[in-house]
Design a protein that fits this description.
The protein is mainly alpha-helical. Strands 1-2-3 form a three-stranded antiparallel beta sheet. The chain is about 60% helix and about 10% strand. The chain has one domain: Lysozyme (Orthogonal Bundle), CATH 1.10.530. The model has no long low-confidence stretch (mean pLDDT about 95). Strand 1 and strand 2 form a beta hairpin. The protein is built from eight helices and three strands; from the N terminus they run H-H-E-E-E-H-H-H-H-H-H. Helix 2 crosses helix 8 and helix 7 crosses helix 8.
Length: about 160
């Protein structure tokens, strides 16, 4: 998958879908989602890579775990109902297991889940890479953060979105 394709086939459609729930489709949201997908999976892996194999606990380009991001976006007050509605629209059961399984290949649903997770944060969407990094770390809580790659992913996302 390349960045432009993920943006056009998943991120933008997910944001358009979320607009009906009052979650705005902005350039800042597009950039942050794309930067996070690049940071998490490099747009190369739909499952977390462990010891060279795609067998890890995280799924999809945004790398959600069942008991973490999947369970969180389904249960979060008010936003959980939105995620459940998105799941229903795409014929996905409303459990963390079913969402986790689906987002490995349902990129629109995965992007919607990622946007909902970001929406739980109290901050405005970031305009600067440092603020984007802070929001990413706060929302995803990566086990092995790689701050040295973030600026490049932010720059790629910025070039694709703006």
């Amino acid at each position: 998958m390349d960045a432009k394709r993920l943006l056009k086939t998943a991120i933008i459609p997910a944001l358009i879908e979320l607009e009906q729930y009052g979650i705005k489709n902005t350039l800042e949201a597009r950039r942050l989602l794309l930067a996070i997908a690049l940071q998490e999976s490099g747009l190369k892996h739909r499952r977390q890579v462990v010891n060279g194999e795609e067998t890890g606990a995280a799924s999809g380009y945004f790398q959600f775990e069942k008991g973490g991001g999947c369970a969180g976006v389904l249960a979060y007050p008010r936003l959980g109902t939105i995620m459940q509605n998105i799941c229903s629209t795409y014929g996905i059961g409303q459990t963390a297991q079913e969402l986790w399984t689906a987002i490995q290949f349902q990129d629109i649903v995965a992007a919607a889940a990622a946007r909902i997770l970001i929406y739980t944060l109290p901050n405005d969407l970031p305009k600067m890479p440092e603020d984007g990094w802070a929001q990413y770390v706060r929302a995803w809580r990566p086990g092995k953060p790689r701050p040295e790659t973030w600026a490049g992913h932010w720059a790629t996302a910025t070039a694709e979105v703006y």
